[in-house]
Amino acid sequence: MAIRKRVINTGHSQTSDVPPPSAGPAGKGQSHAWKEFSKHIMTGISYMIPVLIMGGLIGALSQIIPYVFLGMSPDESIMAALNSGRYSGSSVWMLQIASIMESFGFTLFGFAIPMFAAFTANSIGGKTALAAGFIGGYVAIKPVAVPTLLGGEWSAVAPVASGFLGAIVIAFVVGYFVRWLNNAIKVSHNWLAFKTTFFIPLISAIVAMLLMVFLITPIGGWLNTLIKEALQAAGAAGTYFYATVLAAATAFDLGGPVNKAAGFVALGFTTEKVLPITARCLAVVIPSFGLGLSTVIDKWLVGRRVYDRQFNQIGRTAIFLGFMGISEGSIPFALERPGFVIPVYVTGAIIGALLGVSLGAVQWFPESAIWAWPLITNIPAYLIGLLGGSLFIAVTCVFYRNRLIKKGLLEVA
How many Cβ atoms from other residues are within 10 Å of residue 410's Cβ? Predict the structure, then answer.
């Protein structure tokens, strides 16, 4: 996550609001553009994640009340239960609270993309760009209705949202535009507040509106529609292809650039309710569970320990981290024998993701930790996928290491 140093406004600089240009390696000539892009994107995501977590926790609690405490059927909504007449007294009160929490929790998700766009723009252009970034991000998910002639009468029609893609574009455009304005407009110290609190925010908001209405929303909406139609046309094959690619990329480097790129795409799709994030959530934890499980079952499977004491301890820790939705617990195993372990990670993640998705598991909330499991539709299918992928990794690694031991290529203390 990129960290932006705060610049104290001493009143002697007209550009004190702007973050240091290229806090990163400007001038070093080492993938500067990519590092800049990643820094700003990760800054926006870091501010967006707490909103998703808050919304997810409240939303998860709202589901636990009716479906766990009151034993409601998963195919019945809270409102339908209230109208059924089967509940009375404290049960009605609990259902009302659950309904409010459900509405509030999932409303928070609507703030995720505007928050992302706001702080991505802020990372580039400073706090002057924050408001315009938020406006652009909000319009990306709630497009502005435009007058359209329908049947001889003008009507206000909202186009298809540009979504996460539109939020990225407007955040970068507004961020760099505000940075340029801050450097280009020279005013005296007395007019500095006017420039940073009124003039530049107004200009940038107007630019954001024009770009979103006439350029970004039409193109982004067209792309989103194209993706939806392509996946719908592909049917189940499209869903499985998406799950396969997403799981493979997620498990490939465990938090590295490929993993982050996959998460970036998946987050955009799930936030816009285009495609669920089930495959990625499974692929995040399957390597940790699989390697952790292999340190538990090795003696039972081949009659000996194939890991030393240190890896056995790391294995238990990996399982715990898996329940927390953290994939890094499996990294030590990949570092020891990357040529074998990484392909096994990828294969296990694909197996688990395809199992879960094909059996009907659906997860929209972007979190792999155990506390998000109540939000998953068809949790048995999800657990079967998790178990299937983890078992593949565990069994494969145990037999592989046992074979190395037999050949004298591996010693276990």
Answer: 17
pTM above 0.85, yes or no: no
- Sequence-distant (6+) residues with CB within 8 A of 344 are 290, 392, 393, 396, 397, 400
Phi, psi dihedral angles at 295 (to 5 degrees):
-75, -15
Length of the chain: 413
Q: Tokens 């040529």 belong to which residue? A: 339
What token pair was written down for 202?
A: 């107004």
Cα separations in angstroms, 221 against 143, 165, 216, 264? 10, 9, 8, 18
SS3 377: strand
Task: Give 339-353 as a DSSP string.
Answer: HHHHHHHHHHHHHHH
pLDDT digits (tens, 9 = 90+) for 298-349: 989 998 899 888 788 888 888 887 887 777 677 777 767 778 888 999 999 9
| Residue whose tokens read 């009340």 | 65
Residue 156, strand partner residues: 147
| Angle, alpha carbons 373-377-382 (nearest 5°) | 60
Q: What is the Cα–Cα distance from 313 to 307, expressed in whole angstroms?
A: 10
Q: How far apart, in whole angstroms, are the C-alpha atoms of residue 353 and residue 248?
A: 9
Q: Are 287 and 349 in contact (CB under 8 A)?
A: yes
